[in-house]
Design a protein that fits this description.
Length: 157
Amino acid sequence: MKIKSMLIAVAAAASVSLASCAGKADSAKDDATDAIIGFIIGSNIGANNEANTEAATETVANGAKEAMPVAVIIDFNATWCGPCKQFAPIFEAAAEKYAGNIEFRSVDVDREPELAEKYGVQSIPMVVFLDKDGNVLDSNVGFMEAVDFEQMIEKYL
């Protein structure tokens, strides 16, 4: 009986110890994910061209970004995904059209699995609308026609 209660105590101590190690690993992973999100929210997003950079800088300088409910739209995708490839030109066209109003970021789930996990990406393409603090406002899973994507964007303008 004494050995049984001793084994239970050792098992309980081991599980507490393992749980704290997992928490530290999760904390480090959360810090890395937060850094990625900070980069996404804090940087110019879109069709990486000079005009977009200037428009986004001007928008932030004028304080217009503060008034926008959506700060960032993320397209979670992968290079091997057919519907993602179909959606990419639609996403890029929207990035150009709304440059200076909303920032756009394309994220490959194979390269940024932590970020995909944070936003609950289980199927791609997945579009996520974030506010300036990184909170999810809206999302859509699956291919969208340009008209449907623009209607979704217009809800937040």
